[in-house]
Amino acid sequence: MSVALITGGSRGLGFALARELAARGKRVVIDGRDPEALERAATALGDVVPIAGDVTDADHRRRLKEAVDGLGSLDLLVNNASSLGPSPLPGLEAFPLDELERVYRVNVLAPLALTQSLLPGLRRTGGTIVNVTSDAALEPYEGWGGYGSSKAALDQISAVLGAEQRSIRVYAFDPGDMRTVMQQEAFPGEDISDRPDPETVVPMFMRVLDEAPPSGRYRASDLVTPAGMAS
Questions:
Q1: How open is the CA angle 116-121-126, to the nearest 5 degrees?
Q2: In the beta sheet, which residues pair with residue 51?
Q3: Dihedral angle computed from the Cα positions of residues 43, 46, 47 and 53, in that order, rounded to the nearest 10 degrees
């Protein structure tokens, strides 16, 4: 049976993706740092496997691999778990370096470490890696230097992996702004009800998986219409 692993699957886009993939018949493994939130998500989703823990922890990543190996053949890894950093977002001149290091461990090093662990299985299935990125990786928004630079690094890792691993597909997927806990943390006290729900992004994500374009960076906003894939 084909298996998908989604990090950060207890809420937001990860939760919405897990629901869609499970509905399509995949065995889905999700993780999250908050055990109670993860268990609530698993109950709501139904037939998924929740593994609580932090993606920066090597032992947790080992348990994720064991869960995947026990279910079947992994053909999709979604590195969705992310850290925003301090809230409110500080400028780089005042960004605590220990917090910045944490952002990079979660957003860059953990996805690469998990990819390294799972790559042999993904090569066997001709599978897909999706690294969830952000427009902050490309645009110099004030206050977004920590998060944005980490996502820029993830973009480059995704691009190089795509060039190196020709037997699989590697995508950096930019979902755009969404009504999520992280978005609210980025704008504390502001009304973010105008942002779209994560569920609205799922069809664009699935379009990438279904059409299987070449490895590269894709934006949800470019995939809304039936027009050709973004380059």
A1: 105
A2: 31
A3: -30
- Contacts of the segment 147-156: beta carbons below 8 A, 24+ positions apart: 147/82, 147/83, 147/84, 147/85, 147/89, 147/103, 147/107, 150/103, 150/104, 150/106, 150/107, 150/108, 151/82, 151/107, 153/104, 153/107, 153/108, 154/79, 154/107, 154/108, 154/111, 155/131, 155/217
Whether 80 is in a domain gets the answer yes
140 versus 186: the higher-pLDDT residue is 140
Q: How many other β-carbons are positioned within 10 Å of the β-carbon of residue 77? A: 29
Q: What SS3 state is found at 7?
A: coil
pLDDT tens digit string along 64-89?
A: 999 999 999 999 999 999 999 999 99
Burial of 214 (0-12, 13-18, 19+ CB in 10 A): exposed
Residues 6+ apart with CB under 8 A from 224: 204
Domain contains 113: yes
Our count of domains for the chain comes to: 1
List the domain range (segments joined by +) for residue 11: 2-219
Query: CB under 8 Å to 191, separation ≥6 — which residues?
Result: none
Cβ pair 52, 33 in contact under 8 A: yes
Identify residue 113 by its one-letter amino acid code.
Answer: A
Give the β-pairing of 128-132 and 27-32. unpaired
pLDDT at 229 over 70: no
> Any idea what the CATH number is for the domain that residue 149 is in?
3.40.50.720
| Alpha carbon distance 80, 101 (integer Å) | 18
- Residue 228 included in any domain: no
> Full-prediction pTM beyond 0.85?
yes
